[in-house]
Write a structure and sequence with these properties.
Heat Shock Protein 90; about 325 residues; alpha+beta
Length: about 325
């Protein structure tokens, strides 16, 4: 139904009504200065009110059409209905304003009374032409938004596809090492990996924080098979932020980074603290000499930006990374 249906947001309608009022004001102003017989303030008021009335009738008919009529009729009749409703918006908007002003015995309206039927028809057809241009403009706007969203989705998926092999290669290398040392641990690692991937594949780009934490726990279980349970994971998550949406693999990536750069052949404590302000992943491992944003951290920064979630911050020692949530507009 997108080929004919005219989808207009609330802000767009405010702009349309405002532009309609300005259009009517300037048209009336033109006639005000070109015809001495109608040089009254009521002429300008009538032109402005008529334009606003046409915009309001357009809002009514487009809403009625989109919600109740177009979904119930065959597509072949959509253009005919669009023409009819556009014409009615102009005709009813102008004629209703005309008769309201006529009832107050406004001099200007009295002058145009002999031509009100002709003017009503002219305004109906003019509104149709304006509506046709508006339809093309709005359609182009939403088409551009859809294209932008598709491009953004493609970029996010490309980033996720770069992250998945990054994690898989590390895990498979761990399992390959275990095959020569402890086949039972290797089997357990494969089962944990299957569980992790089964949950990950089913999720969208943004998932609930509680589900991301569950995947992190599975990931740490896999790593502990390799590191002999030397990775201790602590989780402090407030109830209020469990349903907060975060990028898939975001916390897992930070925990993986903590293990990769913090592990020093002894017990490593990794903590996750999550509240309404953000999520902090900290470890007590070795200090990093220099923070370098490789593929994983750079991709996470980009995904946080593209998905409008927040930003990634870090401390100089390289032990602590924080996803700072974007403040919601009130």
């Amino acid at each position: 139904m997108q080929s004919v249906e005219l989808k207009i947001s609330r802000n767009d309608w405010l702009y349309i009504i405002l532009l309609g009022a300005l259009f009517g004001f300037f048209i009336a102003l033109f006639f005000y200065y070109t015809n001495k017989e109608i040089q009254t303030f009521s002429t300008i008021i009538f032109g402005t009110i008529s334009a606003v009335a046409i915009a309001l009738f357009s809002f009514f008919f487009i809403t009625l059409s989109n919600n109740f009529i177009l979904p119930k009729v065959h597509k072949r009749f959509w253009y005919l209905l669009s023409f009819l409703f556009s014409y009615l918006s102009g005709a009813l908007g102008f004629s209703s304003s005309f008769w309201i002003f006529y009832s107050f015995d406004i001099a200007f309206v009295g002058l145009i009374k002999p031509y009100w039927i002709m003017l009503t028809n002219i305004m109906g057809f003019l509104t149709f032409l304006i509506g046709l241009v508006l339809h093309q403009f709005i359609s182009m706007k939403y088409k551009n938004e859809r294209i932008h969203k598709q491009i953004l989705d493609a970029r996010i998926k490309a980033l996720e596809n770069e992250l998945n092999p990054h994690f898989l290669f590390n895990t498979l290398n761990s399992i390959s090492e275990l095959l020569h040392v402890d086949t039972l641990k290797a089997e357990r690692a494969i089962l944990e990996l299957a569980r992790f991937l089964r949950n990950a594949i089913k999720q969208s780009s943004l998932i609930e924080l509680s589900r991301e934490i569950a995947m992190v726990q599975t990931y740490v279980n896999i790593e502990n098979i390799r590191f002999s349970d030397q990775i201790h994971l602590g989780i402090d998550m407030s109830e209020d932020c469990k349903n907060r949406l975060v990028p898939k693999f975001s916390i897992q990536l930070l925990v993986e980074n903590a293990i990769k750069h913090g592990y020093d052949q002894k017990v490593l404590h990794v903590s996750i603290q999550a509240d309404e302000a953000g999520i902090k992943v900290n470890n007590d491992g070795k200090l990093a000499q220099k923070i370098v944003f490789g593929t994983g951290l750079s991709n996470l920064q980009d995904r946080l930006k593209f998905l409008c979630v927040g930003s990634l911050e870090f401390e100089d020692n390289g032990r602590s990374f924080t996803i700072v949530f974007k403040k919601e507009k009130i």
